[in-house]
Write a structure and sequence with these properties.
The chain has 487 residues and is α+β, with helices and mostly antiparallel strands. It is built from 19 helices and ten strands. It has four domains: 73 residues, no CATH class; 44 residues; 191 residues, no CATH class; 64 residues.
Length: 487
Amino acid sequence: MARADALLPREASGFYPAPLALLGRILRLLAGPRSRLGRPGERLAKVLEGLGPVAIKLGQLLSTRADIFGLTFAEDLDRLKDQLAPFDLETARTIIRLGLDRPLDQVFAQIDPAIAAASIAQAHPAVLVDGRRVAIKVLRPGIEQAIAKDIAVLRLAAGLVQALIPASRRLAPKALAETVSRSLALELDMRLEAAGADELGKIMAKDGWMRAPAVVWDGVGKRVLTLIWAEGLPLSSAEALNQPGMDKVALANGLMRGFLAQALDHGVFHADLHEGNLFVGPPSAVMAIDFGIMGRIGSEERRYLAEILWGFLQRDYRRVAEVHFEAGYVPRTHDIDAFAQALRSVGEPIFGRGAQDVSMGRLLGQLFEVTALFDMALRPELVLLQKTMATIEGVARRIDPGHDIWAAADPVVRRWIARELSPAAKMRGLVKDGMGALQALASYGQAQASGQDERVQKRATTAHLIWGMGLGGAMVALGFILAKLLT
């Protein structure tokens, strides 16, 4: 990166504080001929492409944040999403044939050269023998070895950072590296991606904010995935948002709501939602592809997320602070009112404002200061969620510069709160607890009676069953009645 002047580029030297400016001048002494070619974003894109899949994915994430790095810089990185150099058609046909373990003409009537190539795989238009148009995703040759090397480097770097920079330890570099490594390893099996596409396709169909192309299971192997052709234009193309009848506001809102509905309602979400993986059509239709990275969060994390978002929507910073303490995100050694005050300083300046009125760079800087002040550590189980939220918010901003994340989130979060935290929902929880009590007490009675003679065993088991049924049944009945009354 130093040789290409892509680490601390000379074009931004006027904005660096004195120590960084000095470091930049020293690094430029190492710069080679590449440092004089193109804009900073173009130079960085070439370097990241040469560094391999993990670096390319970093570039994809940076490309979604034009609000932080500037539109030109982000556009220069756009090619990393789906415009990398493809490998040849004959190699692809060989991989497909070996992956499916059958002659190609038994499945496909036609396979064309690649139309999109990313860091791990490329996509080929094709036609099935029954005439349906499909896309075949094929892993790059040798990608497993490249990913293994990247993972080794990532783990080494994380270990060095954690050992040498004490301030980084709250960000858990080694745990973060393991999370990224795990997601990359899962991306290398197209059978798992096919299952993810099928699962999320059914989930998306319930709300309609997003869709997923159907899986062609006869065209699925470890290194090959076949999907029905995605309708619309890729959001990474210049023409996508200029299609006649396109409603950019509805499109941006739909993207945000589709992601939140997946995460909150189902606990599973598409975790790689950059423009290269989204196809759009008028007025606001969205079809997602590339399900290699799937995120999952448990029921408790979903509740915390919903309550935090709801608290911000209601501007109830005290409740937002309480949830952070309940979840363990903030150590209890800190003062809850002081944390609520810090949250208010973050939330009030941006509430109800469009994206064009909010400096995301400044906001992220403030959030980082708050997390350091209150000893908030990185949560590895939430890394994919946080990364995807940052990506989808950046994509929505590029679609609609006036995008209001709070207005977009409101209907999904409000629906979740009404369903899961209303009095009726709590009564339904009482019913569930009652059923659990029935089962637990019955099992306890049987365990206590074991080892006794048969007559005593029967009496003890019967007594515990009657007791358990009475208590559990009362809980079930009470919960059922109250739930009915409240609904």
